[in-house]
Amino acid sequence: MTPRDDAPARLPSIRRRLARAMWVGSLLSGLAVALAVWLAANEEVDELLDDTLRSSAEVMSVLLPRHGEPITLSAPTKADERFAWQVVDASQRVVMHSARAPGEPFVRVPLSGFADSARWRVFGMALGDGGRMLYVAQTRAERAEAEVEVAFSSVLAAIAVGILGYFWLSALVRHEWAPLQRLSDRLATHDPLAPGATLGAAERAELGAVHRAVDQLGQRLAQRLAHERAFAAQAAHALRTPLAGIDAQLAVCLRESPPPLNSRLQRVREGAARLQRVVSALLTLFRSDSRPRRNAVDLHELLRQFAFERLQIDVQATAPLQADGDLLAAALANLLDNAQRHGASRVAVSTPSAGTVRLDDDGPGVTPEHGQSLQATLDAQAYDDAPGLGLVLADLVARAHGGRLRLCVPASGKGFAVELSLGT
User: Fold this and answer.
1) How far is CA 16 from the centre of its chain?
2) Assigned fold of 292-421
3) 232 and which of 20, 60, 120, 286 could share a cystine (Cβ 3.0–4.6 Å)?
């Protein structure tokens, strides 16, 4: 089975995290800008209102009497005034004021310029040389209201700019991300080992190096695989033929040798047969990295080729089976060899469902803990830690078919079962 990189599958997740980061960044930058605008707006509004107080006082000083001229106190009229004003004589008596102004002076002592009280922001200026003072004031609540309105409008504008910036950045990222996403989709189905496989021209100049690197990697993999397959073909011929000759010679020796030697020769022949199965398994490992050639498999016919002198094989194949016969034969041969070497005398081979082969033996079995450990090793494909070639080969064959190997430990603690799922 060809190893697959899950980087294409991670790209949408990376894009979602990038979008969240952009959203958070836009929000934080918008809030930072809003805070800066708020502080700047408050300062500017304070200056503007102070300038208005000064200008109002200057205008009123021109209109009001000067130099000791009598002032007629008029009754204040209720009006929606933005400012309040007072005229205070030398004895600190209020001689004229607006509707909003209090009857007492804004300040206790004559003062030119700006002054603050708990409720008012005041600007005072002298009216002539008679000691009269003009005070123009505005309530602090009204100033705060003006500052809040200006700041709130500024904050809303800043947040709106941040949101618009986010959508603009999102659209820009989607536009820039699209070629990478399309490359990811192509990589998900790209087979670098196919004849003439190439990603073709890159959509963007900056992706050209990635295309060239992938194509060069595919060429190196194809070349290495071709060398391995050539070696496997040569090894199959170089190893199987002598082993078959050894088996034939041992068969002749068994017929012609005296009875005391038969048991020894039989053990030698069984060892040679196991060596043949190991060689077949090792050669099959080269093919487990390629796509299986599925055909209808007759399990009875497939198992008839195996000769195990001390192992009875019962076949109960009821469900259809589509698999690569050579790969399946190598996997079953090694699983049966495992069962025999671990003390089983009988193995039941069945097809509990379509695309599944199950082997149940009567050997001593393993503990549930050991079974779970073996299963975890196979699931993690940590084959360096797996005991024996049989389970590793069977799992590789199952994965090449799109399935997996499942170990079953009977509750009785006796026997061992293996289910070889071959996908669909």
Assistant:
1) 8
2) Heat Shock Protein 90 (3.30.565)
3) 286
List of long-range contacts for 340-348, beta carbons under 8 Å, 24+ apart: 340/308, 340/310, 340/311, 342/416, 344/311, 344/415, 344/416, 345/310, 345/311, 345/312, 346/311, 346/312, 346/313, 346/314, 347/311, 347/312, 347/313, 347/314, 348/314, 348/316
Can you name the residues that pair with 115 across neighbouring β-strands?
A: 122
Name the token pair of 148. Answer: 């809040």
For residues 271 and 124, the model is more confident at: 124
Single-letter code of the amino acid located at 413: G
Tell me the two tokens of residue 255.
């017929």
Which tokens in the block code for residue 333? 């041969």
CATH class of 207-287: mainly alpha
Question: CB–CB of 130/90 below 8 Å?
Answer: yes
67 has pLDDT over 60: no
pLDDT of the residue at 3: 42
For the segment 150-154, the average pLDDT, to the nearest whole number, is 77
Q: Taking the model in full, what pTM does it have?
A: 0.46
Q: Could you tell me how far CA 298 lies from the centroid of its own chain?
A: 44
* CA-based nearest residue to 315, from 275, 290, 346: 346
CA 128 to each of CA 113, 123, 174, 217, 244: distance values in angstroms, whole numbers, following the listed order: 15, 16, 72, 95, 131
Amino acid residing at 30: G
Distance CA 218, CA 196 (A): 10
Name which residue leads in pLDDT, 284 or 230.
Answer: 230
The β-bridge partners of 80 are none
pLDDT higher than 90, residue 267: no
Domain-by-domain residue ranges, the chain?
207-287, 292-421
